């Protein structure tokens, strides 16, 4: 089965042809990545990729936002994407939209050893719930429930918009700092590109640094690598918060099937993502600390996870239709 698959985030759109074999293995070709800021609409991205050649192909798109009735408005990009409109315009044989983290859950089984970095070793329960989180333009959360036959049912959430809960005095200060800016403070306000910028502003204030030009998230990470104290503190705090919130979500869902951390930011941190900092915050759950420390946690390094997951989600849906079970 060959699918045109896309992973459409707030910042970038990735597209490729994906050949899925009977075992679920994915072979990618014609891979391209686009900066969304360079395009007025998603249709313009598809045209740049070669929309005229999509006729007759099934298309699966993983999109950064809640999908309903075959359409989505991207949470962090003002694009309204409608499956029916795109299918009619490009004459695709089928076109389906999936939440990006829902799709990524299906992609987890395609990961090989060099596609992950182990943050915490543990024994996964094959029948247990799987958790996937990731920070990028926003903060995504999804989980996968395993059926008796071993197949996975992915469920998307808007867990990135839960409230931030401080766990120490520094984080109490951070909450007050962020509340002055936003009122209610969600975890996405901190665990995102904009979140790294906000953490840097907070750390500059705490380090009594003079106000100056505010770097973007990539600039903060570069400054941290160059030894800037406020930038290094901001990245360390981001890693701590990422571990803390991921742990909260793993505890809330009972993620015995394992935890995967994806998204556009964490894999780019490299050596700045200190596993000990992450795992200490992840497991700091009082009476459940030992239980948390036994969960396997991995960092996803494969940038094509969501794209492959979208292709597999469409294949799963089409197979269900062939069996007369309906989609989803």
Automatic annotation (TrEMBL):
Gene3D superfamilies: 3.30.420.40, 3.40.367.20. InterPro entries: ATPase_NBD, Bacterial_glucokinase, Glucokinase. One of its GO terms (molecular function) is D-glucose binding. Keywords: Kinase, Transferase. Coiled coil: none annotated. The keyword Cell cycle does not apply. This is Glucokinase.
């Amino acid at each position: 089965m060959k699918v045109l698959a896309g992973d459409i985030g707030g910042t970038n759109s990735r597209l490729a042809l994906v050949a899925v074999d009977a075992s679920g293995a994915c072979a990618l070709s014609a891979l391209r990545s686009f900066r969304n800021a360079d395009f007025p609409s998603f249709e313009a991205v598809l045209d740049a990729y070669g929309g005229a050649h999509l006729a007759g192909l099934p298309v699966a798109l993983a999109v950064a936002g809640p999908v309903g009735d075959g359409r989505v408005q991207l949470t962090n990009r003002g694009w309204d994407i409608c499956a029916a409109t795109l299918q009619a315009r490009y004459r695709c044989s089928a076109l389906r939209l999936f939440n990006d983290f829902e799709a990524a859950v299906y992609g987890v089984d395609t990961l090989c050893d060099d596609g992950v970095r182990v943050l915490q070793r543990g024994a996964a329960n094959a029948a247990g719930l799987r958790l996937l989180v990731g920070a990028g333009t926003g903060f995504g959360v999804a989980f996968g429930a395993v059926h008796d036959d071993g197949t996975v049912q992915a469920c998307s959430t808007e867990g990135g918009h839960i409230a931030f809960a401080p766990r120490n005095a520094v984080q109490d200060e951070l909450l007050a700092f962020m509340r002055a800016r936003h009122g209610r403070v969600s975890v996405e306000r901190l665990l995102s590109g904009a979140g790294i910028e906000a953490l840097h502003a907070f750390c500059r204030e705490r380090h009594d640094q003079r106000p100056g030009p505010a770097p973007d998230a990539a600039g903060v990470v570069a400054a941290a690598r160059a030894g800037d104290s406020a930038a290094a503190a901001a990245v360390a705090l981001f890693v701590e918060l990422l571990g803390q919130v991921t742990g909260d979500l793993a505890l809330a869902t009972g993620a015995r099937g394992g935890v995967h951390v994806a998204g556009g930011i964490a894999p780019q941190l490299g050596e700045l993502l200190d596993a000990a900092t992450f795992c200490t915050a992840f497991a700091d759950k009082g009476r459940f600390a030992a239980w948390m420390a036994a969960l396997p946690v991995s960092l996803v390094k494969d940038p094509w996870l969501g794209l492959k997951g979208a292709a597999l989600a469409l294949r799963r849906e089409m197979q269900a239709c062939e069996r007369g079970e309906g989609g989803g």
